[in-house]
Amino acid sequence: ARKRDGKNGAQVYDPAILDQTRERAEIESDIEVAIAASWFEAHFQPIVDIDTGIPSGFEALMRMRHPRKGLMSPAGIISVAEETGSISQIGNLILEDAMANLARVSRLPGMEEAYVAVNFSPLQFEPGLLARLTGLLGHYGMQPSRLVIEITEAVLMHDNPEIRTILNELHQFGCLIALDDFGTGYSSLSYMSRFPVDIVKIDQSFVRSLTDKADDIGSKNRMLIEGISAISHKMNCKVVAEGVETEEQRALLRQMGIDYAQGYLFSKPREISELLSALSARQSDARFMAG
Length: 291
Ligand code: C2E
Ligand code: MG
Ligand code: MG
Ligand code: MG
What we know:
alpha/beta
């Protein structure tokens, strides 16, 4: 029922078996127990300035700490939770964990302005969201711009007027909106004009194919990324490249005018205690580089 997601060190529910009702029921009941027993936690991956390697913020990534099965990655969990509706509860737990831990990270020198980027599912755009965020940010005495709301095409594609209204409110309030997995969907470019977007995250599939030697694929993808970067900057958006694993990719992306990078080259997602010690160890040299 499970397999190891090698690079992350965490396990995933095997997507191949999701259709099988018994396995699905197992995930559903795991989720139910996990909410009640507080097995959900956020792990944090730095998003660094591509020139200096210094973290500007951290993406909060959901993990389930199953006492018997170990640490579970979101694959499999999110899709089931979106179907059953429990994603809004999980989302709130991750949001609260992310804010509380951003407050801890902020106490480190140089991290006073760091942000946390949280992934949001469509169901989380409920009318009470702005009030909840206002309360949370107020509790920690943080400016709204310390919270980045990551959305994917799944949030935008139905062009639901309620979601659009809530996104505009959040943006007015001062939270930043990031378009996640950019470039993989059907009409990504048009979302940039119809929704308030501050940050564009170029999907890791583009980054991976940068160095593809076959049939000019690499050079074509370089042109695509350069184009996305130019358009994003014209739209006043910052650009993050996801899944940066090698120095070669970083150098190419830097030449192409990408602002920020995220990936295993800099750091894997870490649990908060590990993040805090890694950041403290780098206090004299704040760069977050491989190793
Ligand atoms: P995402 O938001 O695009 O997050 C980036 C994913 O890429 C993470 O996978 C991260 O661990 C992985 N990653 C980072 N650097 C590298 C790299 O250099 N190479 C490779 N191969 N992968 C890298 P993860 O943590 O398994 O999360 C998967 C997806 O699950 C996320 O993709 C996001 O869509 C969703 N997700 C995670 N946490 C939450 C959450 O709290 N709420 C919701 N709704 N979705 C979440
Ligand atoms: Mg994301
Ligand atoms: Mg992504
Ligand atoms: Mg730059």
